[in-house]
Amino acid sequence: MKKIDLKKLLSNQLLIPFTAIIILCIVNIIYDCVNTDAAFFAIETKTNNSGFTVFSGPLITILDNGSELAILAIGMTLVTAASGGQDISVGATIAIAGSAMLRVLCGGNTRPETLAAPIIVGFLVACIVGMLCGAFNGLLVSVFRIQPMIATLILFTAGRSIAAWINNNELPIVPDPKFAYFGSFIPGIPIPTTVFIAAACIIVAALLLKFTNLGLYTQAVGINESSSRLNGINPTAIKFISFIILGLCVAVAALIKVSRLSTINYSVIAKDIEMDAILAVALGGNALSGGKFNMWASILGAYIIQFLTTTLYRFQVDSSALPAYKAVVVIILVVFSSPVVRDKLSSLSNKKKALKKGVA
Amino acid sequence: MEENRVLEMRGIEKSFPGVRALRGVDFSLNKGEIHALMGENGAGKSTLIKVLTGVYTKDAGSISMQGAEDIQIHSPQDAQNVGISTVYQEITLCPNLTVAENMFIGRGNGRITKWKKMNEDADKILRSLDIPAAATQQLASCSIAVQQMVAIARAVDMDCKVLILDEPTSSLDEQEVEKLFKLMRDLKSKGVGIIFVTHFLDQVYEVCDRITVLRDGTLVGEYAIADLPRVELVAKMLGKEMDDLSDIKGENAAYSGEDAGDLVFEANGLQSDAGIKPFNFYIKKGEVNGFTGLLGSGRSECVRAIFGADRVIGGEVKMHKKTVKISKPLDAMKNGIAYLPEDRKIDGIIGDLSVRDNIILALQVLTGFFKPFSRAKAQAFAEEYIKKLNIKTASADTPIASLSGGNQQKVILARWLLMHPEYLILDEPTRGIDVGTKVDIQKLVLELASQGMSVTFISSETDEMIRTCSRLVVMRDRKTVGELSGDDVNQNKIMETIAGGEAKS
Questions:
Q1: What pLDDT sits at residue B505?
Q2: Neighbour-count burial of A112, counting CB atoms closer than 10 A to its CB (0-12 exposed, 13-18 middle, 19+ buried)
Q3: How far apart are CA B423 and CA A284, in angstroms?
Q4: Are strands B312-319 and B322-324 parallel, antiparallel or unpaired?
Q5: How much is the pLDDT for A11?
Q6: What tens digit of pLDDT does each residue of B20-72 get?
Q7: Inter-chain residue contact A231 with B352, CB threshold 8 Å
Q8: CA distance B127 to chain A (A)
Q9: How far does A219 lie from chain B, in Å, by closest CA?
Q10: Which domains, and CATH codes, for chain B?
């Protein structure tokens, strides 16, 4: 029998996120036993508004609604690791990128009959705008050495009014039903499109980490900038690139968010999503002061947040009280992943071992 | 206690786990005297200062101040109360407050709430000390020298009898140093005793009255400035007598400069923004040479300029007689130059990364962003060098931060050797590591040179330099003052050249 090294397991970064998911599953199963009419793991087929047969159920909801956050967690992890700070302008830049996309697709009309430009052009414009916002933040952080939170505070504050200004504060509606596919279902495919988009982003991130030195450079810069420079790495460029990548993630998230409604609400779209993205990074056990990171733990963290939200909704928690409940769970998770508690746990397991030895 | 003594320290002892930092050190300071405290790195200067200012508590010995026998100083507050004030190398004031606020903050006399009076008082003090600053000016808008002076003014106003200046001049230019010296002389005439810690010999001979020399935690002696020529001061700091010629050069006779091969690297009038004067330098294939000089003489800055670690602002460099441009470390690496930095913790290790990642880093960067090594290849590289350099680590996965200093240094060395450089620069590779590893590293340097690598070796320990280098560039006060090769590479010659100026007298 293969022995499991308890200490190694305890120090694994994925332990806390996985444990959290398991506990959330158990809580849901218990709830199902009490309420016989509910089934957490059931995936039903049902006909949606457009008349297509699609899958539905809590698990699908989690995967669907957690997509934007998972995508943003990729970029936020890199920004956190490289710069030792966070980008708080993510929600606002989603509004900007989404608004720019709408402007291109609707050509300045509020109720256009047809698309003014192909969807792909709209998306590419969103990508460029997202990367420009990232470049602006990245420039302030990497070249001018402004603290990330302060640098991104500018777009955090101004972003939503810039977004409104792009469309003269109108709310254009995209006429083409195809545009709505990105945020819902493609006819004939019962799985939400967002799941595929998130999977694609995660795969691209995985390839990027596997086939380039982005991971090594980013961690080196985050841990010791001076050493990295003397080893030929350009810390300014690495920090800048991390913000550009986050900008791309923002553009993809904007596509999903806008597609869900086929329009935009400047003050509400992706509200507070930056805080959830930062939380995802933290729940993954990554240090918010930068340095070493585990991308998969952050992505898991993003889905945990959505898992938690879905679970609380199932328990009929009032949506206005939701953040308070969420906060309680988050506190427990963060405390458990803190080094203090981890050390205590591993010393406890050591003691147990010593005791066993003493008995034997 | 003599009448004009203001401070007397007797038999001060201080140990840290594993080190006896001070062994029975005596020190005395007179009223109206500027007293230099000299010694190389690790001689115990800063420990003595910290005992005096209450940062450390002494293990044994006594401290007496004028009129108070055997006082106990347990905290910096205690030291301030008995009239001992310190001004450190780095400004420890608040740049965002005004000059007056900085002078009175934290002194609990309520003056900070009466703005008008506070500013008037501050102006009075500034005028009396002839400091070119206004009370209401923001501290950050003053030059570093003036900030330093404000710190001194604050100290003096706290009725201090003993003023400690810990390397106050290291970030000042010549005119600023002059201004500071004028202030020091003014204070001296007002009867303040000043302890002056510096690495600049010229400055010692310009302002000081007496010198106390420490070495390896023991007192070497206390001298009047007129009785101690520079060359003897250097000898006492380094712990070598002038006529001590016992060093044998036999073992590295094979690496003398003359019969070494082609010119590998050449610099003409190279200058960086780190404040060194333009210098010329060359190294041949298979040669081991070094920069020597006291701490702060600019030897590290020279090699940093060669590697492009500091911003190069002038001069020309050639590799194999072809002009190349080295403006950043990556340029140097592409030209086959490797650099092991002086400060391992700040510039060398990537603390949380594994030993493996730390070893492959330089070669990986050189190979390119889009060509990461496979895990197996990286592991093979790491294991090869862990074995070759006998690095003691649990595994290649262990974070480098958890290794001992000597093993961390070996990992950094492995990182550069893996790059197979043509020209290897080692800046203080043996600092803070155990004796066994020191010898290993010296042997390795000679072995690499015999295989055709050019090596520049810098060490605070002259013995090591003499054993390994066939040619030495001597630095003093941030410029090259001489070059020694062949039989001239010996203690006496080195000390003479370092001391300069008075050496012939």
A1: 35
A2: middle
A3: 44
A4: antiparallel
A5: 67
A6: 788 989 999 998 899 999 887 667 888 898 899 888 888 889 998 887 788 88
A7: no
A8: 38
A9: 8
A10: 5-238 (3.40.50.300)
Q: Which residues on chain B are in Cβ contact (under 8 Å) with A234? A: 328, 330
Q: Identify whether the C-beta of residue A291 lies closer than 8 Å to the C-beta of residue A235.
A: no
**What is the per-residue pLDDT for B252?**
45
Report the candidate in B310, B308, B393 with the shortest Cα–Cα distance to residue B353: B393
- What ipTM was estimated for this complex? 0.85
Residues of B in contact with A226 (CB under 8 A): 346-347
Structure tokens, B292? 């020597």
Pick from B362, B346, B489: which is nearest to B424 by CA?
Answer: B362
Regions of chain B with pLDDT less than 50: 242-258, 260, 502-505
Please report, rounded to a whole number, the percentage of residues in chain A having pLDDT higher than 90: 58
Per the structure block, which two tokens stand in for B141? 């808008």
- H or E segment and range at residue B206: helix B201-207
Distance from CA of A286 to the nearest CA of B (A): 13
Strand pairing of B19-30 and B5-16?
antiparallel
Chain B CB within 8 Å of residue A273 CB: no
The residues near A348 (Cβ < 8 Å, ≥ 6 apart) are none
Is the pTM of the predicted complex or chain greater than 0.80? no
Over the stretch A27-73, which tens digit does the pLDDT of each residue have?
888 888 888 776 777 888 888 777 778 888 889 999 999 999 999 99
Quick one: how far is CA B175 from the chain centroid? 22
**Encoding tokens for residue B17?**
């786990």
pLDDT of residue A350: 67
Q: For B351, which residue in chain A has the nearest alpha carbon?
A: A223
Token pair for residue B435? 């004796």
Q: What is the pLDDT of residue A68?
A: 95
- B398 in reach of chain A (CB within 8 A): no
- Say if the Cβ atoms of B329 and A229 lie within 8 Å: yes
Would you call A208 an interface residue with chain B, using a CB distance cutoff of 8 Å?
A: no
A232 reaches B (C-beta below 8 A): yes
Cβ B346–A226 below 8 Å, yes or no? yes
Helix (H) / strand (E) containing B235: helix B230-238
Structure confidence at residue A351 as a pLDDT band (50, 70, 90): low
CATH of A58-319, one of 1.20.120, 1.10.3470, 3.40.390, 1.10.260: 1.10.3470
Interface of B with A in 408-447 (CB under 8 A): 415
Distance between CA A234 and CA A226 in Å, rounded?
10
- Using alpha carbons, select from B173, B175, B133, B174 the residue that is nearest to residue B152: B133
Neighbours of B365 (CB within 10 A): 22
Q: Does B341 contact A at CB distance below 8 Å?
A: yes
The beta-carbon neighbor of A223 closest among B309, B353, B369 is B353
Q: Dump pLDDT digits (tens) for A298-340.
A: 999 999 999 999 999 888 888 888 889 888 888 887 787 777 7
Interface of B with A in 233-262 (CB under 8 A): none
**Distance in angstroms (rounded) separating the CA atoms of residues A303 and A301:** 5
Q: Which ranges in chain A belong to alpha helices (H)?
A: 6-11, 15-34, 58-65, 67-83, 90-106, 119-138, 148-166, 193-211, 214-223, 225-230, 235-261, 273-283, 295-314, 322-336, 339-359
CB B64 within 8 A of CB B52: no
Contact with chain B for residue A169, Cβ under 8 A: no
